[in-house]
Amino acid sequence: MVFVASLGWSAGTLTPEEAQRAVAEVLPQLEAIRGVKFVKPVPVAVIDDAKARAYALERFKRMTPEAKIRADQAAYRLLGLVPADTDVLKTLLDVLEEQAGGFYDPQTKSFYLLDDMPETMTPLLAAHEMTHALEDQRYDIDGRLEKLGDDDDAALALSAVAEGSATLASAVYVAGAISSGKLDAKDAAAVDQVSTERLNAMPPVLRRQLLAPYVLGMTFLLRGHMRAIAKGFPKDDVNAAWAKPPRSSEQIIHPEKYWDADKRDNPVRVTIQDAAPVLGKGWTRAGSGILGELTIGSLVGAGAPDAAELASPEADWSNAAASGWGGDRFELWTRGDQSVVLLSTVWDTERDAEEFERALPRDREAMRVLRRGKKVGVVAGAAGEHRTPLLESLVKP
């Protein structure tokens, strides 16, 4: 599951006139930073928190069908990625209420600011969100996401391009605005005062998925070298990433696996043999998807940086057991109130597969693992006597 939110501020009272004025002042600099111009104006509106939450819910369900939301949540619970009582959608919406100051809507092509945000913070958020608007006019962000189907990992990688670009553009804008005296450094620093209680309380896997597009998206577009931001916005590389987007979170975590032609590592397509003949009558496939290195990492001990650790170069976005990922696919099968999740993974080398296998938790009674060569299969849930044949099917050559 991938959720794209906008980190912002909540305090004060913003009027539509103030919002329009603040956004208009940002646009010329933003066009210069990004190197392209808006094709048409972007409407700006001010809304309250209730409308923002309703929008987030509607958008999430539009981009991710309710059946997939339920299936992914069930699969995550069975794999132990989230606690059994976690309501994933509610958790994400609660964090949005805490963090969001506004958002660009690719469907209405409009920019919405929350009415409880102070005018002084509007330029910072506008620089980020109007970058989304500018790039949406060129690249059709939602259209690209929809074409990815159930490839959640590729969707996260594409989101990293969008959020990384917007975060870099806003950083360059803020630096220039402070240097020219248009923005007070104290106002820019006030972003750090946003509450992060709900964000830090999220299940680690969800926090990783939420924050990675922003943090890793920046480092990806800077080819892994954060100091390169001193040279300004990387226009050519951002345009190249939109022209041929990365296909996996592995490429976002390890930028050289995308940018370096000699190290380019595209994901392997993994298929799962039809489990219906093995499971028997009444079982149906309820969902499927791709976890990718970022989410696989949560299975094998990779941590989740909290808000205070995001800028740290030691932030634990992957580990030895998750690196070397080549590809994966999971499926959720159900019959009545019974459910089984099947996960098939392929690794770059047998050693990588062994490291992953060894790192998987062994204290879950309903989870079993089998490795053969570079493949590792995982079955979790009510598989019963079918567990062994299911595992065998997941690691076939």
Question: What's a concise summary of this model?
Answer:
This protein is an alpha+beta fold. It contains 17 helices and 8 strands. 48% of the residues lie in helices and 13% in strands.
Q: Could you describe the 3D structure shown?
A:
There is one protein chain. By secondary structure, this protein is of the alpha+beta class. It folds into 2 domains: 16-259, no CATH class; 276-394, no CATH class. It contains 17 helices and 8 strands. A hairpin with a 2-residue loop joins strand 5 (325-335) and strand 6 (338-347). Helix 5 (122-139) crosses helix 6, helix 5 packs across helix 7 and helix 10 runs antiparallel to helix 15 (292-299). The longest helix has 29 residues, at 152-180. The chain is globular and about 70 Å long. The model is unreliable at 1-11 (pLDDT under 50).
Characteristics:
alpha+beta; three-stranded mixed beta sheet; disordered N terminus
Task: Identify the strand order in the major beta sheet.
Answer: 4-5-6-8-7
Mean pLDDT: 88
Helix proportion: 40-55%
SSE string, helix = H, strand = E? HEHHHEEHHHHHHHHHHEHEEHEEH
Rounded to the nearest angstrom, the distance between the terminal CA atoms is: 28 Å
Question: How many β strands by DSSP?
Answer: 8
Biggest β-sheet description = 5 strands, antiparallel
Number of distinct helices: 17
Instruction: Enumerate the spans where pLDDT stays under 50 for 5 or more consecutive residues.
Output: 1-11
- The number of distinct structural domains comes to 2
Which shape, going by the Cα principal axes? globular
Quaternary organisation: single chain
Percent of sequence in beta strands: 5-15%
